[in-house]
Amino acid sequence: MKFISKNNPTPQETCEIINEGLRKKAMITLYSCCCAKYNGRAKSQLGLGERMILIKPDGSFMIHQNHKLDPVNWQPPKSHSKVKIKDDIVFLESVRRSPEEHLLVKLNTTYLVSYCLVRDSEDLEVTGHEKDMGKMLWKHPNMIENGFRPTNMEYATESGFIDILGKDKNGFLTILELKSRKAGVSAVKQLLRYVNDFKEDKSHVRGILVAPGVTDDAQEMLDKYELEFKMVKPPKELKIDKKVTLDFFL
Amino acid sequence: MKFISKNNPTPQETCEIINEGLRKKAMITLYSCCCAKYNGRAKSQLGLGERMILIKPDGSFMIHQNHKLDPVNWQPPKSHSKVKIKDDIVFLESVRRSPEEHLLVKLNTTYLVSYCLVRDSEDLEVTGHEKDMGKMLWKHPNMIENGFRPTNMEYATESGFIDILGKDKNGFLTILELKSRKAGVSAVKQLLRYVNDFKEDKSHVRGILVAPGVTDDAQEMLDKYELEFKMVKPPKELKIDKKVTLDFFL
DNA sequence: GAGTGCATCTCGCTC
DNA sequence: GAGCGAGGTGCACTC
């Protein structure tokens, strides 16, 4: 990893290092006392304060305050970053087209500027999604109940896509609505709409909310509309768990 | 702003600087070749690669790859960060309670480590939200149409909160559903549910979708259910625009 | 490119 | 602390 770092840079040095980082498609990090204005999908302004600024080679741009996970201001990937100097003050500008969005940052003082050329070919492997639940239940439908037979995944209706459609051991149409986290009333409403869509055709339609948990309100609503709940936790199995384990412990 | 920065630190130096930064409640930045494992709400693993790591004094923890706006791995505010060294290899650990979440990062090589004490008392001022639209339309109801009189904001129904409830010049109950961005079918569905809730009582109920735009599908659905659309852009007025303008140009 | 829905969403609000 | 809804959501996916 090639990198450059400069403490207490002059405005000119700040400008040069940022330009170099942009040209070389590096990650650029700044600690600066700055203020910012944004206009685009919304409009915002941020008064003077000390923050960290991160610019990525894909055009992503972030201003991080000393709290919160989210940046206080940002531009998405594919934005175009520029740096200017005017009356000895450095301005950072990031522009996005479609939708048109502008972020202008004034760097009153920069304490630390650095850029690093970063190589990274690894993608994150993640599990525990709703999709993982779907695959698992498709393979092991008896996790829902004995005799359940799934027939469709992502079945299209006018109210949206039904996660899993199938029949129970008595042949009754059964609709599964999956949630990877505790389900609230909105999940029950969604399930109810699917069930009502089908009830127009047939009378015996079961609706089952499948999730690791359910809120009290949601359970009440399930009872009210004679819908069901099945506790299922999303599976958390990583494909090549061994490999990373080795990375970690060897 | 007090800060420390070290190029190509030894594992011991990395450890010391991070610990110092944690103790002083600083923002900590690392450029490292690392791998990571996460387990909590989901589970994930990330193979070896060069990344930037940011730890904030509020416990926020991020691993940033060289692309995307979002961190590839993270922990939310109030997480607890620790650094350990084992066989000359540095491990970062961030733990969150409730829900229980663990992030473990192995730093194979660190290129740059720094921490900065950051002072920042400014909050972001932002406008252009749905709320701003609501306030504007409450003050200037004729923006909807001549003779419209709003009666309630955030009116509670069993299907949720109606943004603005009122009566038109003919005295007909009128429901406004506000969106600050282009509205899709889901917005129309929501509006339709409100209207149907009220139609049980009265027959003449108008539903108006108020947004800067509407998708084709949504417009079709509006026509189908005899709902209306009113083009209104969210207002973008900042309270103390002058102040930041001065910050910028003086 | 637009539209739809999930997310370790985050965040602020209310109860 | 739990639940609910908005967001400059971001992001992947489909059409």
In short:
2 copies of one chain form a homodimer. The first copy, chain A, is α+β, with helices and mostly antiparallel strands and 250 residues long. Chain A contains 5 helices and 14 strands.
Description:
2 copies of one chain form a homodimer. Chain A has 250 residues and is of the alpha+beta class. The first copy, chain A, has 2 domains: 3-116, Distorted Sandwich (Protein Yojf, Chain: A), CATH 2.70.180; 130-231, Trna Endonuclease, Chain: A, domain 1. Helix content of chain A is 22%, strand content 43%. Chain A has helices at residues 11-23, 130-139, 185-199, 216-224, 241-249; strands spanning 3-7, 27-39, 43-55, 61-64, 73-75, 80-86, 89-96, 101-116, 124-127, 149-157, 160-167, 173-178, 205-211, 228-231. In chain A, strands 1, 2, 3, 4, 5, 6, 7 and 8 form an 8-stranded antiparallel sheet that branches. Chain A has a 5-stranded mixed sheet with strand order 10-11-12-13-14, sandwiched between helices. Chain A is elongated, with a radius of gyration of 26 Å. Chain A starts with a strand and ends with a helix. Chains A and B meet through strand 1, strand 2, strand 3, strand 8 and strand 9 of A and strand 1, strand 2, strand 3, strand 8 and strand 9 of B. Chain B binds a DNA duplex (15 and 15 nucleotides) through strand 5.
